[in-house]
Design a protein that fits this description.
This protein is of the alpha+beta class and 280 residues long. The chain is built from 8 helices and 12 strands.
């Protein structure tokens, strides 16, 4: 059982993946940052398709994300439209890659998050997830496009039973299929103390939202990410899935300082106004 972790970190982001008990690594991620525009794009993909197609598919998703990022498409389009475009372009890329295969069909999940200014926008297709936390409390998460999740919505299955249920791996949507994918969108205004976790099913099947919430509050994001992936691999066992995870804080220290200064200036202006009104 492989415990090696491919790791990447920056002041706001920690990301990594572990192969687990699988013969190949079919999870991929990319973390892109434009300091001048104070913008982050985080993309995670979990490939499938057999005969090496899963690796090819996940790589196709992150390659597409890099290409669109380098083309500055995110500057030219509203966030939701850019993320939708990213999913459709990745879908077409997987179709192109299928043409070069003698066997196997490249399919992939995707979850992508764009943080720009004071706004978070995200999309997902498949069962790779995004969690939004306020401190350690989970405010929201994406809903898997799987038969198991569909059964939860119908009241046939308890949410806590999804991770271990056979229907969990029966996906209802994905990139690379015969039809263009139906993409789910989400968004939120950013606030101090918020964090996000993007992960493949190899992580969330083995760690609860409560455990992820405790980990995202750690001062050392890199240490938290390594612990999360180590736990996922250990709990997955000898046949455990690949595991990929991205942790990101909504605001860096500089933005928190600017937000605090702006808030107190606003409060000060209000107090001055009240004093003038009282004096009058």
């Amino acid at each position: 059982m492989d415990k090696h972790i491919d790791f990447q970190s920056s002041p706001r982001v920690a990301a990594g993946r572990a192969q687990g008990g699988r013969a190949s690594q079919q999870d991929a991620f990319v973390c892109l940052h434009d300091a001048a525009e104070d913008t982050l794009l985080l993309v995670l993909a979990d490939g499938m398709g057999g005969d090496g197609a899963g690796e090819l598919a996940a790589d196709g998703v992150v390659t597409t994300a890099r290409r669109l990022w380098n083309q500055k498409a995110w500057l030219q389009q509203p966030a939701a439209l850019f993320l939708e475009h990213l999913c459709m372009e990745a879908h077409e890329e997987l179709h192109r890659r299928r043409l070069g295969l003698s066997q196997g069909e490249p399919h992939s999940t995707v979850v992508a998050l764009l943080l720009r200014d004071d706004r978070a926008s995200w999309v997902h297709v498949g069962d790779s997830r995004l969690y939004l936390f306020q401190g350690a409390r989970c405010l929201a998460r994406t809903r898997d496009h799987s038969l198991a999740e569909w059964r939860v919505q119908r009241g046939e299955l308890l949410p806590e039973d999804v991770a271990s249920h056979p229907d969990q791996h029966k996906l209802l949507r994905g990139l690379g299929g015969d039809e263009p994918p139906e993409v789910d969108h989400g968004g939120a205004m950013l606030h101090a103390g918020q964090s996000f976790a993007l992960c493949s099913d190899g992580v969330w099947e083995n760690l609860t939202a409560q455990e992820l919430g405790r980990l995202v509050t750690r001062d050392d994001q890199s240490e938290a990410l390594r612990e999360a992936l180590t736990l996922a691999v250990e709990r997955g066992g000898r046949e455990g899935d690949n595991a990929a995870l991205i942790l990101v804080r909504a605001m860096d220290a500089g933005r928190l300082h600017r937000a605090a200064v702006s808030f107190w200036l606003h409060v000060s202006d209000l107090l001055k106004g009240r004093r003038r009104d009282a004096a009058a």
